[in-house]
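Data availability (excerpt). The following record was deposited with the supplementary files.
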Amino acid sequence: VVLMAVENEGGKYTLVVTIPANMDAEVYLPLPTGKYQVTNNGNPIKVTKMKNEPFLFVGKIGSGNYRFEVK
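Predicted structure:
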């Protein structure tokens, strides 16, 4: 079972997700207006802005616990 929690307030979007063993997932986050920084478990990461879509593509992640923040 994939577990997920989302919080969107105060100019910060947070996605907490748990991917079970032997699974992977693609992660997309909403594209904010203006400048932004994306972190995974507190570490800055590079993301790809989706062409003609209001999303950021984080990439494919394997099993584990993740906390993505866009601020």
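Summary of structural features: The mean pLDDT is 96.
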